[in-house]
Amino acid sequence: MIHAMGWRWWGVILVLLLLAPFMASSRSIIKNLPGFSGDLPFKLESGYIGVGEEEEVQLFYLFVESQRNPLKDPILLWFVGGPGCSALSAFFLENGPVTIDRNSRGILPKLLLNPYAWTQVLNVIYIDLPVGTGFSYSQTQQGYHSSDILWIENAYDFLQKWFIDYPEFVSNILYVGGGSYSAMPTVPLVKNVYEGCKAGSKPFINFKGFVLASPVTDTFLDSNSKVEYAHCLSLISDELYESIKASCNGNYVNINPYNKKCVIDYEAYSQLIQYINELQILEPLCDIIPNDNRRILFEDSSDGIVQNDSTFWCPRGYDVMLVEQWANNQDVRKALQIREGTKGEFLRCNRSLSYKYDLKSVVDYHRNLTETNLQFLVYSADLDLVIPYIGTQAWIKSLNLKIKDPWRAWFVDGQVAGYTQIYKKHNYFLTYVAVKGAGHVAHEYKPKEVFQMIERWFSYAPI
């Protein structure tokens, strides 16, 4: 009887040991990355944190310690847009410590150090959120259904558990931030984190503020501002702008199909911008259509791909393809400690998510946050037609804040890098920055300028 009970307990222990990696958070130090020559000159960790009541959703993250003073420098929890775009997007193509070498040849792309990495001055947490993004996964099929509301809940749960796993960083100042669509749920998350801190929730979080890049804020306002932006940038004529403004009564989103003049004017506008690269209006329209071999298709440039003679190059699309090629390498997955059998093909942006868009506008959240003592940096790219700066400036103006520092130029290497203005209300400060010559993901187009902006802002120095 005792012998039978002993075997039974050994069986239970064995099952628990096998399931442990999938039930609890984990953290692994990564000293080398495939494609990078030698040891990493920065401290990198990867891990999973389970969120939700049963922790069936396992969120993958990368944590890069600041290369300056990790125990004193701020922590930035950074979200990538989409929804459904992986943290590796930011890690390689935006503000992370390494970049993909475009000249790479062969099975495994080469990695290079990023001279404008934010991790030179910040501790940065990169997270695959929502579930199904990147290497994050669910242990149940039901867990793959997500939404803006679940995004917020999972992010807050992740943040609290991360500080439990990393108690050595509990006194560091925390900021949260993200770009494009991730800005929409980030703002309610900011409210939850702030209120949790105010209520004395545990673990203690030394929360200071937030950063948003080309943020989706109000689905109507952001989309509606595109027509005005197109006119400001001379993409449509004065005559068409005046006509469409009058015929559509300034509403270019909810067009009445029975308003024939509005429909005709909007169709004329659409025809004029259809071949414009909305991410950066001065760059060629270019995209990558993946096939079974994840290769570039050399097709006619009128389709936005590549000319047959290869004179039309798609460098940004090629970067994306290299990231996916790198992340799907088995040696890479071993190095990152990706749990076997949890994810199939890695996609930089997963467009097949089961995701519900609960939020239409977070302007009221912004308005409520002006009653706090938080610091807020929001920056826009002046060549971005996806989220035009005109819409961003409109909702900022609606907050009725006082101007602390009026509109002025800011400089990098003696040249105008953009323009900035600071607003305040009591102890709340909002710094708006326009990045000159940048596209939708500003730090992808102007990495040096954006890095210096970030370094100055986090150091409380004038931008």
Automatic annotation (TrEMBL):
GO terms for molecular function: acyltransferase activity, transferring groups other than amino-acyl groups; serine-type carboxypeptidase activity. InterPro entries: AB_hydrolase_fold, Peptidase_S10. Gene3D superfamilies: 3.40.50.12670, alpha/beta hydrolase. One of its GO terms (biological process) is proteolysis. Transmembrane segments: none annotated. Residues 1-25 form the signal peptide. Keywords: Signal. Belongs to the peptidase S10 family. This is Uncharacterized protein. It comes from Acacia crassicarpa.
